[in-house]
């Protein structure tokens, strides 16, 4: 007999050993590490109790595997509870009514699960590949008609449909709008399919495409993804650039960028000869073809590349096909932007209610949100946008109707006011958004600020509903190509101008209270930058909708910053902050705060210190001594490229760089991202060279390599330096952000205003946290597995300050010792590596 559903919980008895607890989470190995078991238990509890939180698990501890096993264990138990019919019992109903409702609920769920399982099982059992339709030629000939750029009547569409044209389809026919609604919002099943929806779901977001691909590969290693009979139903979402299989559209994207690629895709949704051959018709046969793709996509775990291959094999668009599978997926993997932007969530019809949201690699999430919602444009961009609107009105003014013409004229007046603003001396370098709109003056509206703001908001809604910027920009693009027929088509600045203006207008309308306009003159021209100061404006809707929202990462300290800026509205009893230790033994880690160099010169790398030759010599001599002790690879992080280049230039002149090169081969982080691979290959080859392994036969050859890198640049995150690649990580100075940055000053002042009663200066707290998050991320490049080992040298006496030390990861901080004299740090390192060599 089944136990009462209300008593169902994780099947781990009190006092259970690690093996039993690992089985309870269906961990793919016989016994999980203690830190993995702790992480899985904490996440399970957070989901079950509808909490939000920040979870830190150092890279190399199997974080992704633990998160997946915990989340899916909860999902399966929750589904079991639903099948037993005790979710959301109605306390005010008679017992027999509740029992009847529960029985009906069980019947519905069992029928749904049985039908879906049978359908996907049949797909998996097929031995013959799906025969793809004959590839059709895509007619990519240019269409000389300008009518494609005419925006449809705004008022007529509202009257007919009760709303504005869909945001992504402002200029398409009703047929294509209907198709977009069916495909893009495929999470809203039609008619009899309305019950065919999986709830709750797990949404797993990460920063890059490669991270999501790695996540899917990890899922395949778990019993949930590897089950041959009933693997978890997962779907991966990506952009058209990643998923489009139409060669003509890909060429447009490669030449003109993502916006043009999106436009071309939408144009090819029209019926007729130019219709994309990979998009099934909007009829019963087309729906059936999309459903077949959906079932194939869900029948086994696939990453984006595998979905693209499936689309090519089945001759079906994987971009829209993946969206078709959304409603029935248990796991949805997607990049940050699709999850964080409300318009993207609405377009995809993501069902966050009662679902679990996991945002991995979230250490830079705050900066990502602020960056995504910031926009910068110049006086030149304003002039270009004004010219584009004039050209558009000149071409279409006789064909525009009602509200469209009214708002275009208003937009033209607004641009004229913005142009006038740009030519006037700025009284200040920072304005609130309300001040900025008011300072545009009577050119926008001669009555008063309230009317001005009301008209501005109407303009903002119209821009959102029609996306007129896409039409104006597209027409400008076509005009440019007409005027430059001999030039190769490249993405030029004029095409960007309207999109920048639209982003500015939408930002002003959406977040007026927590944004600032920064003003600066460069080469005599004004630049305006809208900056969002409060990331919670964007993040709070996720917290409001989802059952559980978790930020995870290898280096999340200082966690207090996430609590303050993203989870401020979450009650203490609903917030979890969890940081687990590392799986490596404590004696595999050694940290050292070095206060002085070999000659006793204090190590303090302030902004002015980089101009002191004596201090740079002291740094070089210190590294030269450490190179004699550290085996294999050594990575040295500088606060900036400027600091690094200045130091290396001085060492070349003084001969210190040549002395370092005799001890280890010297490599330097390139400024061009295209050169990173070559540098890393050279660095790894130098470490693997025979001279490293046989020092007695070649005593004068360099022993390993030293890599000079920059904090917050290309090598400080996303690249793993395991084993011999990083036996020592050196932090030179503290990478404090630019104190003269106006944007940083605004953020710091906003934090002070956020809680005027705080006992500490929240602006200074932000300043320290930005620095230490960058330090922690850089140090986190080393130690990737349980047998790895490394030392961490902090070359600046300020690392010993309590406010700095408290912000370091515990697994490093607990093993860090202060060395007021250089000699003691040498002895500590020598003893550490001697012990490792003996072992």
From TrEMBL:
Transmembrane is among the record's keywords: no
E.C. code: 5.6.2.3
Cofactor dependence: [4Fe-4S] cluster
The organism's place on the tree of life at top rank: Eukaryota
SUPFAM superfamilies per the UniProt record, alphabetical: P-loop containing nucleoside triphosphate hydrolases
PROSITE patterns: DEAH_ATP_HELICASE, HELICASE_ATP_BIND_2
Subcellular compartments: Nucleus
Every Helicase ATP-binding domain range: 22-412
Protein name: ATP-dependent DNA helicase CHL1
Organism field: Malassezia obtusa
């Amino acid at each position: 007999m089944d136990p009462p559903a209300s008593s169902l919980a994780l099947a781990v008895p009190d006092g259970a050993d690690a093996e039993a607890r690992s089985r309870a989470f269906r961990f793919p190995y016989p016994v999980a590490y203690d830190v993995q078991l702790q992480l899985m238990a904490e996440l399970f509890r957070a989901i079950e109790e509808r909490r939000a939180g920040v979870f830190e698990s150092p890279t190399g501890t199997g974080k992704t595997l633990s998160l997946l096993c915990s989340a899916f264990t909860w999902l399966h138990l929750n589904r079991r509870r639903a099948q037993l019919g005790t979710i959301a019992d109605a306390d005010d109903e008679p017992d027999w009514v509740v029992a009847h409702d529960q029985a009906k609920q069980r019947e519905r769920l069992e029928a749904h699960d049985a039908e879906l399982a049978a359908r996907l099982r049949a797909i998996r059992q097929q031995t013959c590949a799906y025969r793809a339709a004959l590839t059709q030629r895509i007619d990519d000939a240019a269409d000389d008609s300008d009518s494609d750029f005419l925006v449809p009547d705004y008022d007529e569409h509202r009257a007919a449909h009760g709303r504005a044209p869909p945001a992504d389809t402002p200029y398409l026919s009703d047929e294509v709008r209907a198709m977009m609604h069916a495909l893009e919002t495929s999470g809203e099943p039609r008619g009899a399919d309305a019950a065919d929806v999986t709830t709750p779901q797990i949404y797993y977001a990460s920063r890059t495409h490669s991270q999501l691909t790695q996540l899917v590969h990890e899922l395949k290693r778990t019993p949930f993804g590897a089950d041959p009979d009933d693997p978890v139903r997962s779907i991966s979402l990506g952009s058209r650039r990643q998923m489009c299989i139409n060669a003509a559209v890909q060429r447009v994207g490669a030449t003109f960028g993502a916006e043009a690629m999106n436009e071309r895709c939408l144009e090819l949704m029209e019926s007729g000869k130019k219709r994309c051959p990979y998009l099934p018709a909007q009829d019963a046969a087309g729906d059936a073809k999309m459903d077949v793709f959906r079932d194939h996509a869900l029948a086994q775990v696939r990453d984006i590349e595998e979905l693209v291959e499936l689309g090519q094999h089945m001759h079906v668009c994987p971009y829209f096909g993946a969206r078709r599978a959304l409603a029935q997926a248990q796991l949805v993997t997607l990049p940050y932007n699709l999850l964080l932007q409300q318009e993207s969530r609405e377009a995809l019809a993501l069902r966050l209610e009662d679902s679990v949201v996991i945002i991995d690699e979230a250490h830079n999430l705050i900066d990502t949100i602020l960056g995504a919602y910031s926009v910068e444009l110049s006086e030149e961009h304003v002039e270009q946008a004004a010219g584009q609107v004039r050209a558009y009105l000149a071409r279409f003014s006789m064909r525009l109707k009602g509200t469209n013409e009214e708002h275009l004229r208003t937009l033209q007046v607004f641009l004229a006011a913005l142009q006038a603003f740009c030519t006037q001396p700025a009284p200040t370098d920072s304005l609130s958004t309300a001040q900025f709109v008011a300072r545009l003056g009577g050119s926008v509206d001669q009555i008063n600020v309230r009317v001005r703001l009301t008209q501005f908001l109407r303009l903002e809604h119209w821009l959102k509903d029609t996306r007129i910027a896409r039409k104006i920009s597209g027409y400008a693009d076509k005009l440019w190509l007409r005027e430059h027929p001999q030039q190769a088509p490249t993405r030029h600045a004029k095409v960007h101008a309207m999109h920048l203006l639209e982003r500015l207008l939408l930002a002003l309308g959406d977040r007026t209270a927590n944004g600032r306009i920064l003003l600066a003159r460069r080469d005599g021209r004004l630049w305006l930058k809208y900056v969002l100061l409060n990331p919670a404006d964007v993040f709070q809707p996720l917290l409001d909708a989802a059952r559980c929202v978790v930020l995870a990462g290898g280096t999340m300290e200082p966690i207090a910053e996430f609590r303050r800026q993203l989870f401020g509205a979450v009650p203490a009893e609903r917030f979890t902050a969890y940081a687990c230790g590392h799986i490596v033994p404590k004696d595999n880690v050694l940290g050292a705060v070095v206060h002085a160099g070999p000659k006793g010169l204090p190590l303090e790398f302030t902004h002015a210190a980089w101009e002191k030759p004596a201090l740079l010599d002291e740094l070089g001599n210190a590294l030269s001594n450490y190179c004699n002790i550290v085996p294999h690879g050594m990575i040295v992080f500088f606060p900036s490229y400027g600091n690094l280049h200045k130091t290396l230039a001085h060492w070349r002149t003084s001969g210190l760089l040549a002395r370092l090169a005799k001890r280890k081969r010297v490599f330097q982080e390139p400024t061009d991202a295209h050169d990173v691979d070559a540098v890393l290959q050279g660095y790894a080859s130098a470490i693997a060279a025979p001279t490293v392994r046989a020092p007695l036969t070649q005593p004068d050859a360099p022993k390993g390599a030293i890599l000079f890198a920059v904090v917050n640049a290309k090598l400080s995150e996303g690249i793993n330096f395991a084993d011999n690649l990083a036996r020592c990580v050196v932090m030179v100075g503290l990478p404090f952000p630019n104190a003269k940055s106006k944007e940083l000053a605004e953020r710091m002042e906003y934090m002070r205003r956020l809680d005027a009663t705080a006992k500490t200066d929240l602006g200074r707290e932000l300043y320290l946290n930005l620095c230490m998050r960058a330090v922690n991320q850089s140090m986190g490049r080393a130690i990737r597995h349980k047998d790895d080992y490394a030392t961490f040298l902090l070359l600046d006496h300020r690392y010993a300050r309590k406010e700095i030390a408290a912000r370091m990861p515990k697994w490093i901080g607990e093993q860090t010792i202060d060395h007021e004299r250089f000699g003691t740090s040498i002895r500590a390192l020598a003893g550490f590596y001697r012990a490792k060599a003996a072992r």
